[in-house]
Amino acid sequence: MRLVIVFLLSALLPLSLSHGRDPFAWLYGWQSQGYYFGSLQADTTGGECPDVCDCPPSFPTAMYCDGRGLTDMPTIPSRVKYLYLQNNAITAVPDSAMINATNLVWLMMHHNQLTSEAIGKKAFLKLEGLERLYLQHNNLNSIPPNLPRSLRDLRINHNKIEKVTSADLEGMDNLTILYLHDNAVTDMSTSLKALTSLTLLDISGNKLTKVPEALPEHLHQLYLESNSIDSLPDDFLGRFTQLQYVRMAHNQLTDKGIPPNTFNVTGLVELDLSFNKLERIPPVSTTLQHLYLQANQIKEFTLGSFCSIVDVMNFSKLRTLRLDGNEISRQDIPSDSSLCLRLASDIEV
Prior knowledge:
secreted, signal
């Protein structure tokens, strides 16, 4: 049997060599001759891939430079659309850093050591197709200037930003996601007014004392927890037709600071008012499904906060209700509450 195999290989070898090919190239050629699972070769269009980065032939528009200990921006080939620079020690983005990278769609620069002063005023100016920009976990004290109006997802949380002006977000009407949480923002003025497409806004973990003005009307998710907000404006949620999730835990809200029927709006799915200073359960819509009121100062279980009328067709859709950490016990829950709260599998008191 071995003689037959050797004979077949010896017969194939001259035939392969006659065509100028090594018959065993499939074993090692992808390493020594630039092959990559089917003879894919590195794309050098628009410039060579920097030695410190990876530009896989199977994904020629991506450049992976994450976690390489970089302190400076690498040279970026013009073909690159997806650039991964996170988890480095990059301190600056000069104006010239991305002059050749005008095709970028994603730019990931989170977990670096960037400062606002070290980002050029024109650094992002030419990135007219950029959709995602991740700058979280840096040392920024302001939003970089001249951000592309094409942005859809901006993440700039866990920095040191204290103020957001209208000029910072001007013209960004394509933005749908904005993460600004865990900064030191005290004032946002009317900066959010221009964000007409925004659906998710997270400004939790800042130093706000009031709800920002001119919130975009197409919001689906609004996160304001861990601020110092003690009151809400009139008709706070009335003009939002698509808002489903509101989280305002860990603020300073009191009954006096909440206008009547503020949360009695249809469409709302989840409302988190835990860790505030409420003494009463605020009226909510019968369409609300999850309500978190733990760790307040609530002294009475008012069934009317959930149902004004109870019959076969009229009852609360509430499934989750947390009231633990207040000044009431299970004995304070009215005996007929099961008619109103018939979908609530468990009420935590």
